[in-house]
Amino acid sequence: MVISNILRGKGSQVISVRTGDCVASITRTLAQHRIGAVLVVEPDGTVLGIVSERDIVRAMAGVGEPVMQMTAGQLMTRVLYTVTPNSSVQDALHMMTDRRVRHLPVLDRDGALAGMVSIGDLVKARIAQAEHETEELKQYVATAG
């Protein structure tokens, strides 16, 4: 299974913020959309970084209340790990595990943003794949005998 299969099911819409958006606004966006991370994107579509709940919590622990006045540009994680629509779910899961990230932007061949997948999306896809394979094996055993 490849990432494009997941995007077909969940859609390619990505919730994003601008570099000047404050953390208070970002937390409202995360809560409103019930998501764990937002991409920081320029008006021309260039992806600059990502702000996750984890980033906000770590900043709160280090800076305290003033973190709510910080901007996405100040807080974002600039090093992004990405996948393509043709990347396998297995490879994406390995990347997430190795890099200790929970969200991967999906970039097409031209580097344009095609979507974003979360660890939850990938685990859900792997479970569905395992269930499908189990059913196929049961059918095979039932008809082979």
How would you summarize the topology of this molecule?
Blueprint: H1 3-10, E1 16-17, H2 23-33, E2 37-41, E3 47-52, H3 53-63, H4 72-75, H5 89-99, E4 103-107, E5 113-118, H6 119-144
Parallel strand pairs: 1-2
Antiparallel strand pairs: 2-3, 4-5
Helix pairs in contact: 5-6
Commentary on this structure:
The chain has one domain: Roll (CBS-domain), CATH 3.10.580. Helix 5 packs across helix 6. It contains six helices and five strands. The protein is an alpha+beta fold. It starts with a helix and ends with a helix. It has a three-stranded mixed beta sheet with strand order 1-2-3. Strands 4-5 form a two-stranded antiparallel sheet. A hairpin with a 5-residue loop joins strand 4 and strand 5.
From the structure above, extract its key features.
145 residues, alpha+beta, CBS-domain, 3-stranded mixed beta sheet, elongated
List the domain count as a whole number. 1
Structural class: alpha+beta
The number of helical segments is: 6
Average pLDDT over all residues:
93
CATH topology: CBS-domain
User: Got a strand count?
Assistant: 5
**The CATH fourth-level homologous superfamily:** CBS-domain
- Please bin the fraction of helical residues: 40-55%
Spans with pLDDT under 50 lasting ≥5 residues?
none
Strand arrangement in the largest pleated sheet: 1-2-3
N-to-C SSE string, H for helix and E for strand: HEHEEHHHEEH
Q: What is the level 1 CATH name?
A: Alpha Beta
Q: Span between N and C termini?
A: 30 Å
The CATH architecture term is Roll
Question: Which descriptor suits the 3D outline?
Answer: elongated
